[in-house]
């Protein structure tokens, strides 16, 4: 999908025509918009695996564009930002979403060079399993489901500092932090708290980069990659756990245990 402000329609149309000529299946509102516009845009984002964002000041100021970008971010879609306005730099909410992503400046390079760079990024996306949709048979586009893992919920009854290695992994999988779970495979609760404190002292960016470096060391059968989105979710879920839920959940006391307790009291 191409997300753009209509002030940059010319460049977005050029991108659409180029990708279409390369047999990429691209959702473009001028060609694919039907019926309810809001629902159509939502469906397009849901059905796309990659969102090309044409960044500009107009895009940043547009509420409609903001909704598109934030929805794509919330759904963890692969985002490929391009600069559609000379010397523009992403700021405010758009700067947060783009973060450290590599962008292509279409105002700086000749169009054929910019197109080549864009296609290279999309091919890189394919190799990292964050696939941009191409024109392929539906039965070939189906993804293999990962094997189900048997997980424990014992961590719910413990403080974080008491978590075992298995508790940490179970918690990660419960919140769909799959790459983080691989990085923290040998962590227990004490290690997790240490990592959390390092973020506070050294800053999130340093910890994020350190974890990304670790990805390159432990990747097998191809490198694994930690996205900024998953890192933010990890930080948020851990912060929530420490602030609101780091109290041991009381276990249910059976009737027999209640009787035993009363008997002990009488004695």
Automatic annotation (TrEMBL):
SUPFAM superfamilies: Toll/Interleukin receptor TIR domain
TIR domain segment(s): 1-110
Biological process terms in GO annotation: signal transduction
Domain of life: Eukaryota
InterPro entries in UniProt: TIR_dom, Toll_tir_struct_dom_sf
PANTHER family listed in its UniProt record: ARMADILLO-TYPE FOLD-RELATED, TIR DOMAIN-CONTAINING PROTEIN
Name by which UniProt lists this protein: TIR domain-containing protein
Organism: Rotaria magnacalcarata
Source lineage: Eukaryota, Metazoa, Spiralia, Gnathifera, Rotifera
